[in-house]
Amino acid sequence: MQMADSFSGDQADIIHRFREQVNQWLDAYTLQLDSPPRLREAIRYCLLAPGKRLRPILALLACRACRGEIERAFPAACALEMIHTYSLVHDDLPAMDDDELRRGRPTCHIQYDEATAILVGDSLLTMAFEVVSNRSQTARECCRCVGILAHAAGYSELIGGQFDDLAAQNRLLTIDELASIHLRKTARLFAAASELGGVIAGADEQRIAQLTQFGRSLGYSFQIIDDLLDVQGNENRLGKRTQKDQTRGKSTFPALIGIEASHRQARHLIDEAIGHLEGLGDDADALRQWARQMIHRTQ
Ligand code: IPE
Ligand code: IPE
Ligand code: MG
Ligand code: MG
Ligand code: MG
Description:
With 299 residues, the protein is an all-alpha fold. It has helices spanning 2-5, 9-31, 37-47, 54-65, 74-91, 108-111, 114-133, 139-153, 158-167, 175-201, 205-232, 235-238, 244-247, 253-257, 259-275, 285-293; strands at 101-102, 105-106. Strand 1 and strand 2 (105-106) form a beta hairpin. It is globular and about 45 Å long. The protein starts with a helix and ends in a 6-residue tail after the last helix. Residues 51-52, 54, 84, 103, 186, 223, 226 line the site of one 3-methylbut-3-enyl trihydrogen diphosphate.
């Protein structure tokens, strides 16, 4: 991926390897699902499509930053990707953002049909909890991971943010209102990803709190950059349509404060994110470098 290309060699290798491994785990989890064959096909069509796998990579890098055993973090990493992919499938539905292109392919409801897209989303969301609770870990750690995911994906965070995003269409939001939407619909899952990495590594509570703050600031920056790419990005690289936010009457950072100020805010949030990692030492270098590259992303 583009973002990894400008890393120093070792870091790029780590990211590349993590992405490949996540893809292999996702493939293995869905290869023999005991579901109607067409539902399985549609699940795999969405989940195995070429996404960037940022949330799993974040969980794995956070685990690594705390010297955790990486292998143990893959189920949670895959659960994050399942929840994220479900949110995209539903986000693209006609009743939501009504998009026809995702990850360079027709969206689920275009390729299949609306009912299938709804049920694919339901399947991925529930599968995430099956995957994260079905591993050799302590009951305590398992419950904590389930709770983190459920809260981040739930009515007050991802779903609540999506609800307010839709309710706000064709209404000019204040910056605070927009920030609240971005923090819930997107940043909270990033926060959960880095928190999960710390929890699975067995890090102390102080460190887990730092990682959670890191993910939150980075995720907030990530959504501002997503808003910018909708205005300035290239459809082929992004694998999704551009110029759609304005058409749909969405309040976005570029619409509210302009392109330059949005870039500045995104950069500031990445600095803020990295600031939260103070005291984590060299082990967090890959995480810092990965966060720094985020501002340059084109896909
Ligand atoms: C897109 O997320 C949706 C947002 C939260 C902005 P990504 O840009 O991570 O999408 P994929 O997973 O790479 O397709
Ligand atoms: C999506 O935000 C956020 C979630 C899916 C939770 P957008 O609606 O801006 O994402 P894109 O631009 O369609 O990928
Ligand atoms: Mg949306
Ligand atoms: Mg959308
Ligand atoms: Mg967008």
